[in-house]
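Q: Structure for this?
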Amino acid sequence: MSKLKPQKEYEKTRSFRFQRWLGGSRDPYVGQIEMQPQTPMEMPELTIQERLRDSQAVRDKVYDIENNKKLNLFRRIYVLAAIVYCAGLAVILLAMVASLPPTGEANRPVNNEVSARYIENGLQETGAVNIVTGMILDYRAFDTFGESNVLFAATTTVLILLHMKKKKNKEGKVEEIESDRLLEPKQDAILQASATVLVPIIILFGIYVILNGHLSPGGGFSGGAIIGAGLILYLSAFGFEKAKKLFTEKLYKGVSFTALTTYCLAKSYSFFTGANHLESHIPLGTPGAILSSGLILLLNICVGMVVACTMYTFYVMFRKGDF
Amino acid sequence: MTVFQCVLFGFLIVCAVSVSFSKNLLNSVLIYMSFSLIMSIVWVTLQSPDLAITEAAVGAGITSLLFFATLKKIRAIDTRGEQEEKEVFPGLNEKNIGEEVSRRE
């Protein structure tokens, strides 16, 4: 439409044609080019015997293994070369390990001022009794945040690749022929009885490992993996119908988003205050108490929740393709 | 290095070799699982319990479970034996199996 020119004059201008092409109201190729309808390519259907005969002929004439001397020679050399290569690689690696400096020596390149700082001042600066957790969630929290995001990205990829929408057939019922539900074991009594005993213990142990990450060995990642394993055991014992009551797609999205955002905000605060030489005002507490070591407990809980949800989602996607 | 550690390392090597030489995929996954379990004990003896817990949970638990699920998805675990029996003897179920067998004999 043009405000300056009347409609008939405007239709001759280039801008009108450009607008028409842009809007797609007229295909410029219609009527200009001869077009033929596509014919689907036809493949002659071979019977099984014909295909077997063909492959046998190919095997006999092309890859004549018994009479082809070159091929025989090549195969032998190939196997020999593979063995030599593997042995050589093993020898090189063993020689490499043997030439490393012995463990615990004072002048190893690992024993520099960084690890000395971690060991000497770790307890005062982070408040965590477990130095490993203090290291990965305080000094190197940025790396751990990256790892959590990598896990999240991996789950997203798995969701994109394996997520299947439920198909509905004519009667409105959800088709389950292709899904894995029919293949799962039907109400295995032994598995259910052992799962009833084991699942609460496993999940409680996972929560213990997460909450005591700054005091004892363990932490967010291992505790989350333990909780995920417990959830998977529950799922394989009691089936998808019962597991759906506890764990849905909505819960997964909510928990992952909340945990990652909390982690990001908490660490952003401490990075901001640390970079600007401000006081962070987060009490470190007495070392050894469960509410101590500043942000580490919160970060452990966040990482644990992300990992538990990720593990469970992986399994569900591999099994069925839908929550 | 103690004798216990040497035995564990020997087990590790045996597991690693037998994973690649096993024809059955299910056996391979089971051996891989035991590799992870031995590895977690090795981590404990090397004084890194954090790694041991993670190795036991992830390596022996979650990874093997995912492998099992994948094997089931690609039908590498053989579950055809039960179905073939039904195909060979159509109309056979648990109730009339006795008379069917006696009739065939």
